[in-house]
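step: validate -> pass
step: tokenize input -> pass
step: predict -> running
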Amino acid sequence: MISSTARIGRSLRLIVILALGLFLASQSLAGKGNGKGGGGGGQTTTSESSVMPSYRGSAKALDVTVNLLGTSTPIIISDTGELNSTGGSKDESLIEVNEDIVQAAVLKATTVGSGNQVDSMAQTLGLQLDLSSLGIPLTIGASVLESGVTALCTDGSEVLKGYSDIVELNVNGQEILDLDTSPNQVIPPMPLSGLLSGVAQITVNEQFTDDYGMTVRALHVEVLNLLGAPVAEVIISEARGGLDCGSGPDGECPPAADFITGGARHDNVTATVHGGIFPNGELKGGLNFNDKQGSHINTRMIAGYEMGDTPTTRILYFLDEDSGECKVTVADNGEPGRDDTFAIACDSGPNTSFTLTQGGNFQLHQPKACPSSSDGTKGGGNGKKKK
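step: predict -> pass
step: emit ->
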């Protein structure tokens, strides 16, 4: 049960939220703000109306398609769907997944469009995937498979950036040693045995640009039979993002926003967090936590959001019927997240903290206001063009 003390604390948090909202508005006018997943500082904005971008973004943790006997079997888990063209955010998170073909500690997908940028991120942590029950002799394991895309409007043009993070990848029990994770690395075809002979074609950190924007896949596996025909496709941790600069509706640019997203695993603990103050001033968020010792918290009741003791640390307050008020402190200490930290302290329940050395990533988003120029053309990008 939530105590009266927690309710009083919630009221105090709302005062802090209002103060932080006013602070963020002032930062938007000063052109300040910086974060690993965000756009950082920029030029001073004005109160004149400007043309907002049109946003594109999506993310999904796992996408499996099997084509056997003339039928197609798709399996998609933690998929945000498409971001609204006017912006906003979408988040799909699962922890401690234990299904027939997939076991995973965290499956998380997030996409956010605000101000002058889109950020999308997909995380798959502690994965064990086995397609043998579907007739495909393929297993995939990894501690971390993560991808991210940032699309920015810079001087009226679209600039695209992407990355992947891959740790302890193995395919059919064979660990992929000395893995090169620079973009579009192809691993030599891996022969498959059993009733379905063929090969697995594996690409890590697949990146390409097209009219949509940029797509990054941490892992892309295509299974071909002896005739070279595709019988299965596995995409793990796909992030997409793009912008049409200056093509959205006329109106006031939203003020600066400040929110954090991400997931983590450490020993027996798995957790996903998202929350903060969005451009419309709304406070929203969610916490999913499991320590395998009886504490499982899954709540979207966020009561407060504060800046921590460093510029990239944020404190979030969540309310849970069993654990009461939970104070969650996360720090974004740079890519790929190994130095990020997580801590949770509840009125009744879990109290733990750790550094994300075993996998995970938190990203602080601080999108600045959209550009005032309405004459924006597409450009930039650092991936290959998809044919």
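step: describe -> The longest strand covers residues 139-154.
step: cleanup -> pass
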